[in-house]
Amino acid sequence: MSIQIEGIRKSFGKTRVLHDIGLDIPSGQLVGLLGPSGSGKTTLLRIIAGLEQADGGRIGFNGTDVTGLHARERKVGFVFQHYALFRHMTVFDNIAFGLSIKPRKERPSAAEIRQKVGNLLEMVQLSHLADRFPSQLSGGQRQRIALARALAVEPQVLLLDEPFGALDAQVRKDLRRWLRRLHDELHFTSVFVTHDQEEALDVSDQVVVMSQGRIEQIGSPNTVWQHPASRFVLEFLGEVNRIEGRLDGGTFQVGKHRLALPVTGREQAHWYLRPHEISLAPQADDLHWLPVRVVDVNPRGALVHLELEPAGWPGEVLEAELPQHQATAIARGQALYLGSQGGRLYAGDSQITESKLALSA
Ligand SMILES: Nc1ncnc2c1ncn2[C@@H]1O[C@H](COP(=O)(O)OP(=O)(O)OP(=O)(O)O)[C@@H](O)[C@H]1O
After folding, report:
1. For the whole model, what pTM was predicted?
2. Residues in domain ABC transporter (predicted)?
3. What are the structural domains, with CATH classification, of the chain?
4. Residues 180, 181, 183, 186: what is their CA dihedral angle, to the nearest 10 degrees?
């Protein structure tokens, strides 16, 4: 089932929380709504579900307007972070619930329900827990049961709001891989809310980055990561260092240090560098032009994580990441020169240049 979201607006009291949201979700996609707390993700999800009414705009399912339909009539499945299972019912009965309350004409027979719940339990790999009560399950098991319960009625749209938010990192990772696989097997359409960028990039076909009730960017995980559409997306997705300087007559100037750049204009600018985009050298050269001092060295698997302090220019501590073999000679307290062939330079809201800043210093 495809989902069309057109011109959705929503205010709570005088506060506008969604501004004219437009989004097309093709059938079978898993779409991650990603943004900081309060950006409007849950509100948008609830509007898609029919649990919340928008002030304006339209929601379509497969091109049919469902804006006026109640949540029940939209036939979507939900999994929420704290979507409590029914405490007094066994795992089996929880999963069977949606089928057993169907109107008599649509309700499967008891044998069919048993068969179906059995299949779902196998799918979530929890057949051995069918007779347990929710209080006897771990958090991860409960969420898998919640997912099985949502899928029992074969929704064509599944909405998930931070479904794994309360779980520890490893369980979370396992469950999202597993959700991805399930999604690929069953081909429903999912919208998934998260504020965890790694989670969104890991499972989504498309990521929708939201900020303050607006969509900042829509794209594949690769696109939003490699080509962030704005400073917000660049800063929100992953760690990034920001070096403040000034464009001045064909140079980017940081303190008394200068990098020659083929740009005109005189204004404040920021150079954004991801930790892995930083290159370091013991001596200044064409590429390495900014003096720094190493304040910390932390090996992390195949990479070494470094903290670098500006030496003689105004700025904050920078984070760099080097492959192990390039960092063997680097020690705390060492003076080095920083440069990069990557990074992005912004002045105001506009990006001056995307990469290849490495010109002569
Ligand atoms: N029922 C409500 N009444 C008043 N304000 C609300 C209501 N629901 C949400 N809000 C406000 O709307 C804004 C968006 O909230 P929403 O829950 O959609 O954000 P979110 O991106 O999902 O955040 P989080 O990641 O913290 O859940 C917030 O400022 C919130 O305080």
Report:
1. 0.85
2. 3-237
3. 3-236 (3.40.50.300), 241-353 (2.40.50.100)
4. 180
